[in-house]
């Protein structure tokens, strides 16, 4: 069974999840609006993290709708206070959603972490009612090795994060494979898009990268992927305002409808 590589008890995890949401939610909201989320919809938000999209869904499906927010760590979604929200502490690999029930199932930056990603994708599709919509958004994290002016240190830290993830069963290129994977499930009316930002080191947007490196730093050092001095220098380079531009992970978004 999949083991989530990131340690949820890490003190900075809420801030890290919020920074991922700040970077990726604007596009997610655009897709959700275009997909027509409306009052009365029954939605599932899987791997809900800090809960920003669960909150958006609760506010858009109204009192007649329902939002089921699932995560193996529900500390942050439990802080949300909506009468139409149901929080479930649930491992989506071993405890699938109910079949044939949901108008919308949304999942973002989760499947790449799961060895059973294709099986889970099938289960998410099975959870849709006929005509229901799946929106799945997954990253290709290889892009974080690219910066300008070139920095061997930042490229090394990006490669170390990808390598550590891969050793833990993460598919760091899953974003690129997402559309064919969703097409295989038989969903109709497929669409896709992707988001990639070039961000400046030291800007508020670069915090996701520095927090992820900080979070993984002891494992990266233990595995000999970088020395302690290199990790410290890379963290400083990511946090200190400079002219250096670095790519975020590419987030690929795919949607489709159950026949
Ligand atoms: C990278 S975060 C993404 C959070 C959120 N979807 C977002 O994009 O901001 C992945 C989330 O999935 C949760 N998670 C990891 N493995 C899971 C599993 N097997 N079942 C349910 N949730 C899981 C983690 O606890 C974490 O909150």
UniProtKB/TrEMBL annotation:
<feature type="domain" description="Methyltransferase type 11">
    <location>
        <begin position="45"/>
        <end position="135"/>
    </location>
</feature>
<dbReference type="GO" id="GO:0032259">
    <property type="term" value="P:methylation"/>
</dbReference>
<dbReference type="GO" id="GO:0008168">
    <property type="term" value="F:methyltransferase activity"/>
</dbReference>
<protein>
    <submittedName>
        <fullName>Methyltransferase</fullName>
    </submittedName>
</protein>
<keyword id="KW-0489">Methyltransferase</keyword>
<keyword id="KW-0808">Transferase</keyword>
<dbReference type="Pfam" id="PF08241">
    <property type="entry name" value="Methyltransf_11"/>
</dbReference>
<dbReference type="InterPro" id="IPR013216">
    <property type="entry name" value="Methyltransf_11"/>
</dbReference>
<dbReference type="InterPro" id="IPR029063">
    <property type="entry name" value="SAM-dependent_MTases_sf"/>
</dbReference>
């Amino acid at each position: 069974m999949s083991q989530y590589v990131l340690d949820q008890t890490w003190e900075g995890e809420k801030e890290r999840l919020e920074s991922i949401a700040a970077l990726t939610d604007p596009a997610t909201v655009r897709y959700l609006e275009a997909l027509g989320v409306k009052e009365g919809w029954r939605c599932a938000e899987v791997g809900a993290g800090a809960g920003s999209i669960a909150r958006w869904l609760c506010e858009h499906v109204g009192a007649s709708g329902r939002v089921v927010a699932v995560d193996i760590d529900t500390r942050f979604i439990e802080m949300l206070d909506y009468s139409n929200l149901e929080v479930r502490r649930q491992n989506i690999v071993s405890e699938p959603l109910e079949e044939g029930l949901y108008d919308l199932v949304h999942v973002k930056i989760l499947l790449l972490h799961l060895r059973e990603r294709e099986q889970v994708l099938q289960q998410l599709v099975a959870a849709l009612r006929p005509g229901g919509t799946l929106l799945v958004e997954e990253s290709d994290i290889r892009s974080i090795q690219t910066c300008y002016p070139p920095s061997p240190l930042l490229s090394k830290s990006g490669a170390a994060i990808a390598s550590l993830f891969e050793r833990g069963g993460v598919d760091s290129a899953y974003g690129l494979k997402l559309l064919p994977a969703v097409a295989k499930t038989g969903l109709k009316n497929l669409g896709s898009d992707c988001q990639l930002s070039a961000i400046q080191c030291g800007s508020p947007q670069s915090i996701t990268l520095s927090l992820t490196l900080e979070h993984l730093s002891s494992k990266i050092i233990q595995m000999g992927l970088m020395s302690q001095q290199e990790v410290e220098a890379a963290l400083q380079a990511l946090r200190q305002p400079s002219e250096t531009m670095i790519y975020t992970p590419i987030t690929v978004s795919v949607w489709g409808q159950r026949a």
